[in-house]
Design a protein that fits this description.
152 residues; alpha+beta; Jelly Rolls; two-stranded antiparallel ribbon; globular
Length: 152
């Protein structure tokens, strides 16, 4: 099973790089829980670094997902009109700015605050957010879900 997962990951990484898409490890099961021990996370971090991946989707559930984000630079600010994010910062530090308005990819009038290992951030729909001032790199779990469950 581990060989199969590693093979799927390797092929997924190659496809993801070729098409600049998020690599997905597995679809969310409906009949069992998924355990991702810290040793597996550590291996994912190494694989992401080797392949220069910023996002690895560990579990894809359609309207929800569990991802690893590993960034080394500031990112263009954005807003998710139908998606809620919860970030659990695992490594590194930077600055998270939320609120305000996005002008030319940057937040104007938002509230900046330090972002560091151990922090948990809840980002509701329609809230501008962006990371800047990354010190080396910052790694966080990104648990996302859509709020339009009643719509098809």
């Amino acid at each position: 099973m581990r060989t199969l997962v590693l093979a799927v990951f390797t092929v997924g990484v190659a496809v993801g790089i070729a098409f600049a898409q998020t690599v997905t490890i597995e679809k969310a099961p409906t009949d069992h829980a998924v355990s991702i021990p810290k040793e597996k996370l550590a291996q994912y971090f190494k694989d992401m670094d080797a392949k220069k991946l910023m996002t690895l989707r560990m579990i894809e559930g359609g309207k929800y997902s569990v991802n690893i984000r590993r960034i080394t630079n500031a990112e263009t600010a954005l807003v998710h009109p139908q998606t809620v994010d919860v970030w659990v910062v695992l490594e590194g530090s930077g600055t998270l700015t939320t609120g305000g308005k996005i002008v030319d990819g940057k937040i104007v009038g938002g509230e900046p605050r330090p972002l560091k290992a151990g922090d948990v951030e809840f980002i509701p729909t329609n809230l501008a957010h962006g990371v800047s001032g990354v010190n080396g790199s910052i790694t966080f779990l990104n648990i996302r879900w859509d709020v339009d469950w009643d719509k098809k």
